[in-house]
Amino acid sequence: MTDGDKEKLDKIIQKYEGKEGFLIQLLLDLQSELHWLSRESIEELSLRLKIPVSRIFRVASFYKAMNLSPVGRHSVCVCMGTACQVRGAQRLLDATESKLGIKSGQTTPDHSFTLNRVNCLGCCAIGPVMIVDDDYHGRVDSKKIKLLLGQIASDS
Ligand code: FES
């Protein structure tokens, strides 16, 4: 961990000092700061809180929201639900993989983007749908993907 990361960890630990049942929220806060929960950060946390590494890992691996491998600064999710598949989700996923140069479930080497497949997002009428960070995009085609991801990459 860098010194900056250790400072962030200290601040988060201080925030939960004296509170009970804080581990999940603390891990989510830490992930939000560091983008993922590295083995190193978990070991550091274990030392400072005097909680066994195995217990922290058990909690972190139980919750899907916690990332034990590096994730990108931007999250891209392509809906592969049935309605979106009928409307061209596979083409959308292929074009996104090609634009980012990674497969679903992977992160770009510069840690800019992580790409995932998800199931129905509940807005089938505007399919095919993708979420970039927290924004939903409907009726996406390969041209729109290139524009969208190009825009995000240039803003970063
Ligand atoms: S199947 Fe994609 S939003 Fe429902």
Q: How does this structure look, described?
A:
The mean pLDDT is 91. The two termini are 23 Å apart. The chain has 156 residues and is α+β, with helices and mostly antiparallel strands. It has a 4-stranded mixed beta sheet with strand order 2-1-3-4, with helices on one face. The protein is elongated and about 50 Å long. The chain binds FE2/S2 (inorganic) cluster (FES). FE2/S2 (inorganic) cluster binds next to helix 5.
Structure characteristics:
Glutaredoxin; alpha+beta; 50% helix; 156 residues; single chain; 7 helices; binds FE2/S2 (inorganic) cluster
- How many helices in DSSP terms? 7
Bound molecules: FE2/S2 (inorganic) cluster
User: What CATH architecture label of the largest domain applies?
Assistant: 3-Layer(aba) Sandwich
Nearest-integer average pLDDT:
91
Q: Whole-number radius of gyration?
A: 18 Å
CATH fold descriptor of the largest domain:
Glutaredoxin
Give the distance, in angstroms, between the N- and C-terminal Cα atoms.
Answer: 23 Å
* Biggest β-sheet: strands ordered side by side in the sheet: 2-1-3-4
Which structural class do you get from the secondary structure elements?
alpha+beta
- Characterize the largest beta sheet: strand count, sense, and whether it forms a barrel: 4 strands, mixed
